[in-house]
Amino acid sequence: MNFASLVGNAPGVGQDPTVDRLTADDDLFVRMDVILGLPVVNQTLWRFPGTVDVDAFASLAEKLRRGRLSRLVATHRGPGRAHWRYTPDAGHFSVQAEPVPVGGEEEWGRAQADAELDIENGPAWRLVAARTADDSSVLVSLVISHVIADGGTGAVAAIEAVHGLDYTPGTAPGLVSNVLDAGDLLWNAGKTAVQMARASRSGPPVSPARVTGRPAPETDVAGAEIAPNVTVLIPTADFAAAAQSRGGTDNSLFAALMVGVLERCGRVSPGDVVPVSLPVSSRTPDDRRANATSGATAFVEVSADRYEDLTAVRAACKEAYNRLAANSGKVAQRAVVLQALSASLTRRLAANVTTPLCLASNVGLVPDEFATLGTGEHGELSVRAVTATDDPRRLRDRKGGISGWLAVGADTVMFSVSSLDPVRIPDVATMRRLVTAELAAWGLHGKHWGA
């Protein structure tokens, strides 16, 4: 996805005031945050050379605070969709006075991800910059609530800020607008529920069964870290050669790596079929949505021959994208119905909902503006999502596996993996061992972010 091509709202371009309401996708993340207590936070870390001026990021932050990220969730009494309330208070910026200890860069990044966010009162995102104690590096963290922005929205917002582009905020709705919206929401939810019921009578779709390996609910995870992450920077030429020599692509190698980490942690076994979730951006030029991502699912068999030949994995990914339209339609239908339900009913329906076993987000080529943040220097990137809960049991009970990100730069490929399984991957040390071993099986080696 070329995020730079999706930047809009150039200076001098006027727009009529509009009410920006939360979409069904936005509402899903609100419910995960407010109702289920499992808020999702996106984080990007940059490591720049020490010659970069830390205070220069204040200008970037000010532009972000007046751009598409400067919004909070505003609700009203009665049924109807919430709307975005635009305000600079949605964002926070600070330069940390205390230097980061050398070797403590990753711990610093994690601490930034754990900072409190508030989607209704702010801040819903935080930009923090700091220097390392030896003055050799400048670290930057951008943490955004997934309610406010998915990865694509966050990247577009940063690029717009670098270019100094204006963003026209939406306006607050009046009583008539809210009444009309409530009627539209309930009508669409009811109509969609009927369509789903009719479709279900034709029988469930035929697809490979999900693997049965799951963490035991009674396992004690009190000492587990929350979503430990490892990010490795691999030479781009090496990564491309590893994929091409096996008849694959960057994307199919990425999917195979993720399946390999799952196998190494004992979550899946040879012969299992792993549903690999492949997020796909549906963002269009001048798109005002906070979340604009669809999901494809590739069914990848855990087979030893994938290390020699990626043809099967590549075919599985291609089939997943071909099925995308139909699958996205069903997911979108459920989200539309859910948006009209009460919090108590949502809580009951979500009692047995699970998180993905294997989520693989391929960012693609990283735009220069995002890599440099306007500094003229390319920062070393680490991209991740964090489920911001203080109770690892909530993650265990959702039976998730791992989530990963891939981003391709001119010199390095960023491969980032986080654990959603506190039973089998309870800490960074375990994740680092698994990722290092899996990369080595492909003849790949790299440098850990922050090292």
As a percent range, the share of helical residues equals 25-40%
What is the approximate shape? globular
* String of helices and strands: HEHEEEHEEHHEHHEEHHHEHEHEEHE
Determine the N-to-C terminus distance: 28 Å
Q: Main β-sheet: number of strands, strand sense, barrel status?
A: 7 strands, mixed
CATH class of the largest domain reads Alpha Beta
**And the CATH topology of the largest domain?**
Chloramphenicol Acetyltransferase
What structural class is derived from the secondary structure elements? alpha+beta
CATH superfamily of the largest domain: Nonribosomal peptide synthetase, condensation domain
Strand order of the largest sheet: 9-8-10-12-13-7-14
Radius of gyration (CA) equals 22 Å
- What would the average pLDDT be, to the nearest integer? 86
SSE blueprint:
Layout: H1 24-34, E1 40-49, H2 57-64, E2 71-74, E3 83-86, E4 91-95, H3 105-113, E5 125-131, E6 137-145, H4 151-163, H5 175-200, E7 229-235, H6 236-244, H7 250-264, E8 273-281, E9 293-301, H8 311-322, H9 324-339, H10 343-349, E10 358-365, H11 368-372, E11 380-387, H12 392-397, E12 402-408, E13 412-419, H13 428-441, E14 447-448
Parallel strand pairs: 4-5, 8-10, 10-12
Antiparallel strand pairs: 1-6, 1-11, 2-3, 5-6, 7-13, 7-14, 8-9, 12-13
Helix pairs in contact: 1-9, 2-4, 5-9, 7-13
InterPro entries: CAT-like_dom_sf (IPR023213)
Protein name: Diacylglycerol O-acyltransferase
Organism: Gordonia westfalica
